[in-house]
Amino acid sequence: MATGRVDLDGNPIKPMTICMIGAGGFIGSHLCEKLMEETPHKVLAVDVYNDKIKNLLEPSSQWGDRIQFHRLNIKNDSRLEGLIRMADLTINLAAICTPADYNTRPLDTIYSNFIDALPVVKYCSENSKRLIHFSTCEIYGKTIGAFLPKDSPLRQDPNYFLLKEDESPCIFGPIEKQRWSYACAKQLIERLIYAEGAENSLEFTIVRPFNWIGPRMDFIPGIDGPSEGVPRVLACFSNNLLRREPLKLVDGGQSQRTFVYIKDAIEAVLLMIENPARANGHVFNVGNPNNEVTVRQLAEMMTQVYAKVSGESSLDTPTVDVSSKEFYGEGYDDSDKRIPDMTIINRQLGWNPKTSLFDLLESTLTYQHRTYAEAVKKATSKPMTS
Ligand code: NAD
Ligand code: UDP
User: What's CA 107's distance to the chain center, in Å?
Assistant: First the structure.
């Protein structure tokens, strides 16, 4: 653990206690690990699961005195306020945040992303505690360019697609496209936090992640998650590769995304944690504008990288097209393109992502292969029961 840490303005950083809600998830597990390995801060880790941070919590772990797990559901647990009061800073990561849920479980999605987050905001505001809240890039919805004719040269103009925290509109589809239930709930909680800042001086930072990916993201269906579950694209494609099935391209895989390596993104969060004077009152895009691909290109790259790290040949037909209705059901819709503008995070925190898409896929798929290949082989070779 480093001592004598200073912030970006050269001031010493005092050890703090952080109440991290959703600490057992993908981002939370990486953030806990980073805080334990590189800082003197303490973590009150709140979640309903802790599998992804078990290594940090074991009695034999060297971090045992700085991380404490509290298994609680923030929907209905009166211990939450006490934990927030004990901490200097609360980070809220808890959410339903897999697209397969947005159109099929819209009520749970709205409750999780808005209603369940309300007490967290309220307790922070009432107890004058700082809050870092995790929103989403999906708040921007579709780009303005998506509404231009396909051959319009304006589609190449960044004014029509670059997503800026302080300028871009939020463009969601119609109400029967329940995909937007998540974005809409996240937008309302962002506005509520902003209003708490304006009217009640809540010290807040809002994070808008742009497709953070890496080891421990979601689950592999039938191995460490439900066999009928549909995780986010990294885990879907990893599952297909592990099972030697074609990767499914939803509606032709034409949507575009920028992917950032989780370890780069966590650096940005640590800067926010340790530089409150620069982070408070801001909304930050956190992504890698240089790592843009279509979903089809992602599938091709993952196929190539997986062949390299596993030593297995690729399938003759590596991808298959599937309609969104078939894959996600009624009410699915998609964000067409997501490129983060980096001006504000550069200016406030001097942060830039480092890892190329190829490199991040190489380390992530090496992890996926090492972690799951044997288990998938066992599961698929089990004799069928009649
Ligand atoms: P995740 O699903 O891996 O983690 C969320 C964690 O919150 C889970 O461990 C879950 O058990 C916990 N949780 C949910 N509801 C809870 C409750 N009621 N009580 C206690 N714990 C609860 O997701 P993640 O990828 O780590 O995302 C974290 C946050 O970042 C979410 O708010 C998500 O919307 C946002 N986000 C992430 C990405 C990304 O690229 N990973 C993109 C956009 C937004
Ligand atoms: N997608 C796909 N095949 C899959 C899973 C996802 O083509 O097996 C597409 C999905 O339709 C979307 C993109 O991949 O266009 C990213 O999906 P993800 O679930 O990661 O979340 P999103 O970026 O939409 O929030």
Answer: 21
Question: Which of these, 229, 245, 376, lies nearest to 317 by C-alpha position?
Answer: 245
Pocket test for ligand 1, best of 21, 30, 69, 134 (most atoms within 8 A of CB): 134
d(CA 376, CA 306): 15
CB-based burial of residue 383 (10 Å sphere; 0-12 exposed, 13-18 middle, 19+ buried)?
Answer: exposed
Query: Would you say the pTM of this structure is higher than 0.80?
Result: yes
Query: In sequence order, what E strands does the chain have?
Result: 17-21, 42-47, 67-71, 89-92, 130-134, 162-163, 204-209, 212-213, 247-250, 256-258, 260-261, 282-286, 292-294, 319-322, 339-340
Given the residues 102, 123, 140, 182, the one annotated as active site: 182
Distance CA 231, CA 208 (A): 20
Rounded average pLDDT over 293-306: 98
159 CA → ligand 2 middle, Å: 25
The per-residue pLDDT for 3 is 59
CA-based R_g, the chain, Å: 21
ipTM score of the complex?
0.99
What domains can be seen in the chain, in order of their start residue? Answer: 95-370 (3.40.50.720)
**Residue bearing the CA closest to ligand 1, atom 29:** 93
pLDDT in tens, 179-233: 999 999 999 999 999 999 999 999 999 999 999 999 999 999 999 999 999 999 9
- The answer to whether residue 182 is catalytic is yes
Phi, psi of 265 (to 5 degrees): -65, -35
Going by C-alpha positions, the residue among 26, 28, 23, 32 that lies closest to residue 66 is: 32
DSSP secondary structure, 305-349, as one string: HHHHHH-PPPPSS-EEEE-HHHHH-TT-------EE--HHHHHHH
The overall longest dimension of the chain from CA atoms, in Å, is 68
Determine if ligand 1 sits within 6 Å of the CB of residue 101.
Answer: no
The pocket around ligand 2, CB under 6 angstroms, is made up of 99, 138, 211, 232-233, 236, 248-250, 253, 255, 257, 295, 334-335
CB distance 286 to 133 below 8 Å: no
Does the C-beta of 253 come closer than 6 Å to ligand 1? no
